[in-house]
Amino acid sequence: MAQPSPSPGPGRVVSLHLAALPGEPTFPVARAGAVTGRGLVGDRNYWAGEGPRPRRRGAGRASGVCDVTLIEAEVLDALVHEHGITLTPAECRRNLVCRDIRLAPLVDREFRIGTVVLRGLKLSEPCARLEQLVRPGLIRALLHRGGLRAEVVHGGTIRAGDRIRPLTHDARPASPTPAAAGEARPPSPTPRTR
After folding, report:
1. What is the pTM of this model?
2. Given this model, what pLDDT does residue 108 score?
3. 160 pLDDT more than 90
4. Does the pLDDT value for residue 13 go beyond 90?
5. How many CA atoms lie within 13 A of 24 on its CB side?
6. 3-state class of 188 per DSSP?
7. What pLDDT was estimated at residue 135?
8. Which helix (H) or strand (E) element contains residue 138?
9. Contact 167/112 with Cβ under 8 angstroms?
């Protein structure tokens, strides 16, 4: 079992994946627009409804709603060595496959991927639906290392190869980024007086 590092990151995005509808296969993309409070444009989990996204849907382990899912590429490597299971980045059904960063320490923390700021919500445990869509044996193999669910705090564009950096409590993007598709620009900050 891998030893946890004292501080996460920096890491990088190895690949990005979207699925147009729930249950459909994911497909790789070079970049994806991340919209605050809605998710990745074109993905099955994108909230296109009016008003704020509901925080839960239904019951059970898979009921939590999130904007973006992430998994460590090292976990996919370990599946081959520990369980003889080859799981491609597309088959793991996570939006972002990351390398050189531990995701568990990012729960309840903000982190930057390129110009986008995400907040880790909770670990993403594997579910029976993943086994149905991909192959048996994945629940046990991915237990407690199925990735991370996150929400978009500051939108923009995520690209394959982008660095992943945990933020300190007060850290924010240095400059505003062009709004992602459909995202309203945040108001300009008011100057501080001393």
Report:
1. 0.76
2. 95
3. yes
4. yes
5. 13
6. coil
7. 65
8. helix 138-142
9. yes
